[in-house]
């Protein structure tokens, strides 16, 4: 993985274990996970146990610098490198290809813990997680195997699907064109989360009227990536602009969009939900720590120490309850998404459709709840510590800003309607949606 290649930079109880200390396998097509299963039965430990033992020291190191990076707007190139070196990019890759062979619920546990260390990091890997899943569900063969080994070796993939401007809904202004004996890509993308850190970016494009996805090497001269995302939260995800100027594309790296794995929207949302659960856990952890250490009290409080004040305890109890609820909801969504993964080889059957509907509905239900409760929990912090909680040095405001930003992805009002229509009328949810300028009504 490269260190950096940006062309411009703008400055614009517990829920999970703490980063420092603590207070059913899916077999991909054509790949065996038997060695992981053998490890479970022989030792009583699980692959998740081994992964967390390996990654928790990295998470602790990431958490130590989270506030400083946020305050100074330092993109986490080093933390991404630490994670990749520790095998974070291979968590779902089958053991036969050098990966950890985690299930989707196990992956979600890891994402929550990373989100509690730094909410930016799981979102950075969101595009990578989805592309790994797409390769897991691809037809067994040489090209699929090459990608799985790339992931195991530490190569990661970013995302470049969205465009700004007046493009029509469902269309792409980015074009893949034939130039002699080669393919070239031209266009501009925004919300390109993770691509600035990655060797590859996963791009949607138009090829002579058909929608395709394209894998593009980011290190070539025809790719310019800028850190110009100006959101007030999740500021360090590298969610900026990519400009493609005759960027070269290998024909083997072009696929029809309709061939993507069916449950991708639910998986993308699962990552964001895990981020919210991580934010809730960090909010609880940092609030409880600050209250334990606080010696100053208000004269009209009800105890000589804040930690013993029943009113403050009740507020922290609300925060803790949100953190627990978030954890439980993410686990439920992860199980539903795993169900869709398990039926992917039965694509378009009634069983597969039912599994995908459930995954999409469960992710939407959790989004409806957590989009409100986690930002609220991050606001309650300021009821416990008074004005001192607003100190920039403490960085407690980042939890609300990050939670509110994550909750603004995939507008929740539409998800609530979709869930309601399903509940009342049994209407299946949309699996793919897009944004753009509405076409004229006939």
Automatic annotation (TrEMBL):
<keyword id="KW-0560">Oxidoreductase</keyword>
<dbReference type="InterPro" id="IPR013786">
    <property type="entry name" value="AcylCoA_DH/ox_N"/>
</dbReference>
<comment type="pathway">
    <text>Sulfur metabolism; dibenzothiophene degradation.</text>
</comment>
<dbReference type="InterPro" id="IPR009100">
    <property type="entry name" value="AcylCoA_DH/oxidase_NM_dom_sf"/>
</dbReference>
<dbReference type="InterPro" id="IPR037069">
    <property type="entry name" value="AcylCoA_DH/ox_N_sf"/>
</dbReference>
<feature type="domain" description="Acyl-CoA oxidase/dehydrogenase middle">
    <location>
        <begin position="160"/>
        <end position="246"/>
    </location>
</feature>
<dbReference type="Pfam" id="PF08028">
    <property type="entry name" value="Acyl-CoA_dh_2"/>
</dbReference>
<keyword id="KW-0288">FMN</keyword>
<feature type="region of interest" description="Disordered">
    <location>
        <begin position="1"/>
        <end position="42"/>
    </location>
</feature>
<feature type="domain" description="Acyl-CoA dehydrogenase C-terminal">
    <location>
        <begin position="272"/>
        <end position="410"/>
    </location>
</feature>
<dbReference type="Pfam" id="PF02771">
    <property type="entry name" value="Acyl-CoA_dh_N"/>
</dbReference>
<dbReference type="Pfam" id="PF02770">
    <property type="entry name" value="Acyl-CoA_dh_M"/>
</dbReference>
<dbReference type="GO" id="GO:0006552">
    <property type="term" value="P:L-leucine catabolic process"/>
</dbReference>
<keyword id="KW-0285">Flavoprotein</keyword>
<dbReference type="GO" id="GO:0004497">
    <property type="term" value="F:monooxygenase activity"/>
</dbReference>
<dbReference type="GO" id="GO:0008470">
    <property type="term" value="F:3-methylbutanoyl-CoA dehydrogenase activity"/>
</dbReference>
<dbReference type="InterPro" id="IPR036250">
    <property type="entry name" value="AcylCo_DH-like_C"/>
</dbReference>
<dbReference type="InterPro" id="IPR046373">
    <property type="entry name" value="Acyl-CoA_Oxase/DH_mid-dom_sf"/>
</dbReference>
<dbReference type="GO" id="GO:0050660">
    <property type="term" value="F:flavin adenine dinucleotide binding"/>
</dbReference>
<keyword id="KW-0503">Monooxygenase</keyword>
<feature type="compositionally biased region" description="Low complexity">
    <location>
        <begin position="31"/>
        <end position="42"/>
    </location>
</feature>
<feature type="compositionally biased region" description="Polar residues">
    <location>
        <begin position="1"/>
        <end position="11"/>
    </location>
</feature>
<protein>
    <recommendedName>
        <fullName>Dibenzothiophene monooxygenase</fullName>
        <ecNumber>1.14.14.21</ecNumber>
    </recommendedName>
</protein>
<comment type="similarity">
    <text>Belongs to the DszC flavin monooxygenase family.</text>
</comment>
<keyword id="KW-0547">Nucleotide-binding</keyword>
<dbReference type="InterPro" id="IPR013107">
    <property type="entry name" value="Acyl-CoA_DH_C"/>
</dbReference>
<dbReference type="InterPro" id="IPR006091">
    <property type="entry name" value="Acyl-CoA_Oxase/DH_mid-dom"/>
</dbReference>
<dbReference type="GO" id="GO:0005737">
    <property type="term" value="C:cytoplasm"/>
</dbReference>
<feature type="domain" description="Acyl-CoA dehydrogenase/oxidase N-terminal">
    <location>
        <begin position="61"/>
        <end position="155"/>
    </location>
</feature>
């Amino acid at each position: 993985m490269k260190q950096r290649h940006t062309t411009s930079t703008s400055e614009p109880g517990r829920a999970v274990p703490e980063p420092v200390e603590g207070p059913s396998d899916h077999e991909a097509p054509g790949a065996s996970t038997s060695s992981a299963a053998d490890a479970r039965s022989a030792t009583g430990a699980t692959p998740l146990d081994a992964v967390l033992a390996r990654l928790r020291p990295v998470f602790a190191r990431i958490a130590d610098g989270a506030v400083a990076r946020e305050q100074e707007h330092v993109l986490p190139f080093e933390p991404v490198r630490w994670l990749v070196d520790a095998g974070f990019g291979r968590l779902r890759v089958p053991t036969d290809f050098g990966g950890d062979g985690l299930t989707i619920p196990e992956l979600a546990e890891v994402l929550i813990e990373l989100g509690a260390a730094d909410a930016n990091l799981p979102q950075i890997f969101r595009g990578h997680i989805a592309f790994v899943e797409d390769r897991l569900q691809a037809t067994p063969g040489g090209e699929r195997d090459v990608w799985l080994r790339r992931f195991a070796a530490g190569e990661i993939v970013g995302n470049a699907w969205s465009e700004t401007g007046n493009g029509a809904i469902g269309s792409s202004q980015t074009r893949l064109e034939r130039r002699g004996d080669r393919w070239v890509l031209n266009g501009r993308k925004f919300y390109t989360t993770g691509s600035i850190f990655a060797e590859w970016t996963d791009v949607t494009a138009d090829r002579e009227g058909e929608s395709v996805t394209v894998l593009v090497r980011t290190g070539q001269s025809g790719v310019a990536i800028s850190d110009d995302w100006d959101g007030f939260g999740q500021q360090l995800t590298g969610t900026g602009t990519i400009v493609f100027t005759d960027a070269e594309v290998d024909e083997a790296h072009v696929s029809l969009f309709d061939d993507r794995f069916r449950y991708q929207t639910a998986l993308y949302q699962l990552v964001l939900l895990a981020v919210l659960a991580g934010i809730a856990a960090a909010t609880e952890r940092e609030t409880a720590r600050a209250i334990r250490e606080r010696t100053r009290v208000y004269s009209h409080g009800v105890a000589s120490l804040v930690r013993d004040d029943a009113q403050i305890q009740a507020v922290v109890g609300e925060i803790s309850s949100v953190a627990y609820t978030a954890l439980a909801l993410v686990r439920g969504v992860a199980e539903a998404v795993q169900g869709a993964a398990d039926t992917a080889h039965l694509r378009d059957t009634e069983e597969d459709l039912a599994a995908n509907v459930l995954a999409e509905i469960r992710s939407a239900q959790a989004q409806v709840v957590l989009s409100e409760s986690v930002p609220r929990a991050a606001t309650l912090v300021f009821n416990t510590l008074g004005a001192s909680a607003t100190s920039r040095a403490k960085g407690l405001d980042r939890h609300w800003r990050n939670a509110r930003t994550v909750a603004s992805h995939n507008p929740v009002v539409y998800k609530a309607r979709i869930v309601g229509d399903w509940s009342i009328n049994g209407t299946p949810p949309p699996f793919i949606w897009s944004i753009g300028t509405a076409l004229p009504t006939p």
